[in-house]
Amino acid sequence: MFSTEVLYRDITEISAGPTTGLLQGMGLRILPRQGTGYLVGGPTVQIRTGNSTLLVSCTRPEEFIECLGSACAGGHATRG
Question: Which superkingdom (predicted)?
Answer without folding.
Answer: Bacteria
